[in-house]
Design a protein that fits this description.
Layout: E1 2-7, H1 12-21, H2 23-26, E2 30-33, H3 35-45, E3 49-51, H4 59-68, E4 74-78, H5 88-100, E5 105-106, H6 109-120, H7 126-131
Parallel strand pairs: 1-2, 1-4, 2-3, 4-5
Helix pairs in contact: 1-3, 4-5
Length: 132
């Protein structure tokens, strides 16, 4: 399955720790991330991550385009709700597209853990049928 990963600056360390904790599950899937987040994940996990541009340089738009084409099966976006971003419309577009294409979305650690554990137990197999 294709997993999209984005983390705002204040959540990048949390994303790294999440990926370390769930490295075994993530290693079985294709990972896509904005540039800085992807690089930081690779540094601590040795996982292969397809990296787009940095989020503020258009990486969130690139990932949103992949979501729009229904090519992402699970999207984990650890966002910082306390700090507004200048590229917030791009973020909201990705979230809206997940809703349109029935792509499971986590915006916090608790939901990310539920989704990744469900993925490991086969709970997201419906995505393979939707994608075809």
């Amino acid at each position: 399955m294709n997993i999209g990963l984005i983390a705002h600056d204040a959540k990048k360390k949390l994303m790294q720790n999440f990926c370390i904790a769930y490295r075994g599950i993530l290693s079985k899937h294709d990972l896509y991330a904005t540039g800085t987040t992807g690089r930081l994940i690779e540094e601590v996990t040795n996982l292969t991550v397809y990296k787009y541009l940095a989020g503020h340089l258009g990486g969130e738009q690139q990932l949103a385009a992949q979501i729009e084409q229904n090519q992402i099966d699970l999207f984990i976006f650890l966002r910082d709700p306390l700090t507004p971003k200048s590229h917030e419309p791009d973020v909201n577009k990705a979230i809206r597209l997940c809703d349109m294409h029935n792509i499971p979305l986590a915006t916090n650690l608790a939901t990310a853990e539920v989704l990744i554990r469900s993925l490991d137990k086969g709970g997201l197999e419906f995505r393979e049928m939707i994608r075809q």
